[in-house]
Amino acid sequence: MEAATFETVYRQKYEVFCIAAYAILGNKEDAKDVVINLFADIWEKREYYQIEDMESYMWRAVKNRCFNHLSKRALQETREQDYQASLLNYVLPEAFAAEVKEVLVNAVNEMPPQRLQVFTSIYLDEQKYHETASSMGISINSVKTHMKLALKHLRIRLSENF
After folding, report:
1. Whose C-alpha in 37, 58, 67, 78 is 20 to 30 A from the C-alpha of 11?
2. Whole-model pTM above 0.90?
3. Within the chain, where are the H helices?
4. 71 by DSSP, 3-state: which?
5. What total of structural domains would you count in the chain?
6. Are the C-beta atoms of residues 11 and 58 closer than 8 Å to each other?
7. Residue 52 pLDDT > 80, yes or no?
8. Predicted confidence band at 155 (pLDDT cuts at 50, 70, 90)?
9. Rounded CA gap, 51 and 54, in Å?
10. d(CA 135, CA 137)
């Protein structure tokens, strides 16, 4: 196959391949990345000269790369879950844990009321930023600012004591 045929397949089928990849991956950006990386790899390696039926090859390659991507994503999620589980299993000495808890409680109680409400609704009530903003009648940017200041305050208090 010639470079012109490769370019024609790219121009005519790129979006179709992206839609197919999206159907498998469920993420538009990942789908585009898989397809564009496939085209780039073929172009860089000059493999298009060896491919007789480019469209069939691309369908198979998109499917395979999507499945590879899903496998990598699952492996990464498993590793993250294992890491988080190991953190949960890590136990601080009781005296140190009590001291940390006391410092955190004091630091949280020092926060202004609105910042405290934002912090507790996001961390304790597990609300999303937009949910907190809506329930409090403030903008999402205000929620972000309150969270930034709350976390900064906690970091300062913890660094002062430990």
Report:
1. 67
2. no
3. 3-25, 28-45, 54-89, 94-109, 113-123, 129-136, 140-161
4. helix
5. 2
6. no
7. no
8. very high
9. 6
10. 6
Structural domain that includes position 75: 3-88
Task: Report residue 50: phi and psi, to 5°.
Answer: -90, -10
**Closest C-alpha to 142, from 121, 156, 126:** 121
> Per-residue confidence at 56, pLDDT binned at 50, 70, 90?
confident
Q: Are residues 84 and 98 in the same domain?
A: no
Higher pLDDT, residue 94 or 131: 131
Length of the chain: 162
Residue that the structure tokens 């538009």 belong to: 28
| Amino acid in position 66 | C
pLDDT confidence band for 43 (50 / 70 / 90): confident
Nearest Cα to 25, choosing from 75, 62, 77? 62
In this prediction, residue 94 carries a pLDDT of 65
70 and 119, same domain (yes or no): no
What does each C-alpha distance from 115 to 8, 49, 62, 149 come to in angstroms?
A: 56, 62, 48, 8
Do 96 and 73 share a structural domain? no
DSSP structure class, residue 85: H
Q: What is the band of 141 on the pLDDT scale with cuts at 50, 70, 90?
A: very high
Residue range 135-158: average pLDDT?
A: 93
